[in-house]
User: Fold these one by one.
Assistant:
Number 1:
Amino acid sequence: MNTATETRIFFTVAAALALGCDLASDRIDPADLDPEEEAAEIVENLRLAGYPESEIEARADGVVIVGGDAVVSLAASREMVASEDQDGPSFRQYRTNNLVSKSKNTICVNGAAFTGTLSTGLDRAIANYTNLDLTFNMVRTAGSTVGCDATIVAFVVAGEQGLAEFPAGGNPNTWIEIGSGVANYGVAVSTQVITHELGHCLGLRHTDYYNPDISCGQGGSGGNEGDAGVGAVHIPGTPTTATYNGSIMNSCYNSGSTGVWTANDLTALKELYGLGPFGSAVSSFAGTLDVANLDGSGHFLVGAADVTGDHRADLVSVSVDGSAYVWPGQVNGSFGSAVSSFAGSLDLANLDGYGHFIVDVADVTGDGRADLVSAHSNGSAYVWPGQANGGFGGAVASFAGSLDVANIDGKGHYLLAAADVTGDGRADLVSSHTNGSAYVWPGLANGGFGGAVASFGGTLDMANLDKSGHFIVDLADVTGDGRADLVSSHTNGSAYVWPGLASGSFGGAVASFAGSLDMANLDAFGHYLISVADVSGDGRADLVSSHTNGSAYVWPGQANGGFGGASSSFNGTLDMANIDMSGHFILDAADVTGDGRADLVSAHTNRSAYVWLAQ
């Protein structure tokens, strides 16, 4: 213990590693190793994982520790060597390669040994986790394991330190040790220490792992606990450096420790164990939906929008058989029986470049029902009004053959969407022209479009056709002012929102991401941008992507037109067909259930459709 001038109280809980039963391995079973051999393999695995020898301690009893208090099991050391770091080493907030499975819904903490200040600290530490919307609920017990998916036993030992291991095999570590002397520093410090140790059990590493002296000393390097590309995985959205008292997960505590999560701690926890913006999926069609978006045969899915006027988004397709179909959205997130229109007479240009290019499904007439909007290769645009029964009425034509559609021939107006830019309750037709300007044709009550309003004066470099400049993602109300804004992702790695104005033009752009957004729509790597829709239900549209890492992301729309920090769903398990034609073809984000939050909609190559409910 160091009681120097700043009264720092050392808490050398370094990278505590995993318990790890039931881990498969090609190596010798631990039961066949004597303690000396087992310790030797653990030490070698830690070296391979990049831990410096100065941080590795092999005790006489065969126990191996890193960083002063981190017990390393053989199985855990093997798991570290086998894992790969997806983000590369850099000095940010970290987790281990070992995390707790999201199937562990209830994690119990046996606190029977804790009394007095430590008992109160344990209650508050558990509340630190339980008060967050995480994939698990943490509860205190006195020894019972009924209803527990996993149990952590809390022990009191001599001293003023803490000790824990990291998870393994999808299970949290099964114990923590807290020094009895920690109680001498009060409830806040006790809460900090216990919360920290529980964090290790869940896979959190030290925020200052690269230089523990940030929280433990008065200067110097402090000694890197080791990364080498494994075992220290950067948590997206967390800072590039650690600071004194900047995180519960700093290496050392002190008399000023509060036991309260910092904003960066919360970002880390939500990234690893947050419920995410999308919950469990609801499926429809039981393997009978033939999706033409992938193979050119069957139903070309246009989008999800409220055709019937019941405030639930319906699934809309135009089939290669010449008919359009609307499957009404249901409260539970499924789709009902299809209603068909056009009786085989609709010639679809989206697949063969001839006939009607379906642009969108949106409420052009202002009657509360989404209409089907197309641009024909004959140079006219058509709006078929949505009906309460889910069908479409007779078409209203605009432009009298003068509309040059770049979606078909690569020249002229690239039609982006139909959305209410003017804020009058009717969706307007929006294009980005190859001349470098954007155009908005105001929607009329009769279903036609009025005279165009132009923006950008020829300066808009559109990547949708040539993969350079602004890839226009969508039009939606990001700012929450009732007017749809133009949203793009630029090849420079930033996203831009141009606010829609009552005149039908767009205002000055607001940028987000500062060049860090890797967009897969153009190069098939990174974030495939799906849609801009209100997932959170706050009245502002959010940017939605599906990443090639198997997760979906939602960046909340802000009142100033920017996007906030992302929340993720699916934890790497989402197989996205938009790029490789296998798995889920992510179609749209739209409110299928009618609860005011946009749900994620996909059509799978297994011929079923899925709706992940916004939560």
Number 2:
Amino acid sequence: MPNASPLTALIVIADEGRRYALDQPLRKAGFKIRDASNGAEGLRVATEIPDIIILDLHLPDMSGFEVCCRLKAHASTSAIPVLHLSDGPVESGEFAGHWERGDEAYLTHPVEAVELLSSINSLLRGRQAQRQFSSFLEAAPDAVVIADQGGKIVRVNGQAERMFGRSRDELLGQAVEILLPERFRVKHREQRASYLANPTTRPMGSGLKLWGLRKNGSEFPVEVSLSPIFDHDGILVASIVRDVTERSRIEAMMQDSEVRYRRLFETAKDGILILDTLTGRITDANPFMSELLGYSHEHFLGKELWEIGLFSDKAANEAAVRTLQDKGYIRYEHLPLETSQGLRVEVEVVANAYREDHHRVIQCNIRDITERSKLEKQMQEQAAVLEDLHRRKDEFLAMLSHELRNPLAPITNAVQLLSLQKHENKLQHQARTIIERQVGQLARLIDDLMEVSRINTGRIHLQLERVGLNGVVERGVETTRPLMDQHHHELKVSLSSQPIWVYADPTRLEQVVVNLLTNAAKYTADCGTIAIAVQQEGNEAVLRVRDSGVGIAPELLPRIFDLFTQAERSLDRSQGGLGIGLCLVQRLVEMHDGKIEVESKLGKGSEFVVHLPIMATLPISPTSPKHIVPGSHGAALRVLVVDDNLDSAQSLGLLLEATGHDVQLAYDGPTALQATLDYRPHVVLLDIGLPDLDGYEVAKRIREQPALKNIVLVAMTGYGNVADLRRSGDAGFNHHLVKPADFMKVKEILATVPEKAI
């Protein structure tokens, strides 16, 4: 006997001498001995679970057989092997039947040491086998329920207890069908009886799908298999029960998914083809494919895609299949297909490769895009038309502004002439002031039209430099002061106490200020209040323009900066304008990397807030232009005025003569060239848009004459964008003025020309 781990033997014998006779050989064999002199004491000590019990059949309080039955009935002691002792042979067949169980043996007094140890060794080997079997049962992932031939449960594992919610004591001795709902009990009983009739033909039984019943009455799906266990009492049947709740749920989901897929496959309004990935041949087609092309379902089966017209030839088809095999996805647009009636259908194809039941397949979704393609073509044509209209609109705006500036130029000149009159009466002064103000308004409207066209076509280029925001606001306020005075507005100006420098185009930034103040004045009733403030907030320069005007309706706020958007005008008071000013403001602010916001409530005024980035570092200031020493303000210059607009030429000539200059007029290009040679003017004020020979060509020819190289050429035109300025410079012009030219600028240019330049 191994003695590395001492075994414990319980000796239950009333006679002390007999106990001692057995005690000695067992101790020598390495056993630890516990003893008891009666059955009750033996049952108590047995709860300590000895490795073997030596039990006398004749005890003072109860028979050894009764003690054994109690031991076997209790779960904790049922597996302890028992060696029975008696004074002589036992006649009872009932006793002998029990001693054939495999965990019990029988000896008579007196017992020889060798026979004793041999019997104990045999019982312990049987117990080890039982322990191994028990370990196997407990480790099993499924519930195991062992029943005798009558269907009574004799053993269960822990998984069975957990699965059915019943303890071992509640299960042992019960009919195995207690674990099944009533409707499945007969079926299981018949299967078990059939199995017991011939268990060797199917040693592992056959899976049976049933439902299990928990103690709380809930049911769950199970799969039951039967297995035989050969015992001394005959064949026992082990029912191996597997909870298939999760598997059943997954199977149900897969079945539902298959049903849904088939329903989608059958009812989809796109064509669907299923292909074998290896061969590229069609294995299934949905009804819409037949509807789309007019062929039967069988027509598609076994064909490759090129055979139904999706690809031009077999090589293109094979290349597509290889791409699918490698990448698992392809997409084609605008593939042509032909119906059985010879009609052309344009389709979009999206194909995916995936696994289906351990086999790779390809699914091709085919969508009829014939109508969509027609719409796309129409949209492309419409976009081309809109683009052409947009271009023609810009050309029209440029031409319109040019044509409007032509009549404005002589009107402006005439107003300047009137202002030179020394004996102007009050009525004449009022009339001239009105004309001057309205001409200025017309000039601003024309400028706005041109600005929008320039911004939309990207023709505006900012001349960025270090700019003080306070100064920009002051100039904007000065420009709009007459408008404020006209409507008796109270204008509150709050400048920053410290200089705020921004990297900006001062002219464009002043335009932002002027447009915001003008907009506020237009929509504020007479005697209202307008406030403009400049301050620094963090790393931003913030400009606020607030008014007490009519406000902006909520539905108009989201598009207040859109082109041609205006507040609704009333019949009694038109605000004027074209709905361009705020659009220009937003575009110019964004070009300076800034943003503009607006808050307003109808009837409670509006506030526009401009955010501009403050200069992080001061850029290098551009080189200052060379200072040109002006000639004597009183010097009389020879000035040639060239303009095909008779009123414009004559009015400008009269202005120049009134300021002491000698003037000649020309109305076309060839005449201007000849007059230049004959008259030798100091300055030529030259219109660009001349008949026969335009101003650019006239300027080039003048510059070709060495004797005329010092003549100052001033372009007078309705075009004033960057490209126009560049072109006039290339033609040889010294200055570029946009009609109606401010006569003060003309005078400034004339003042820079030396009297003896020619």
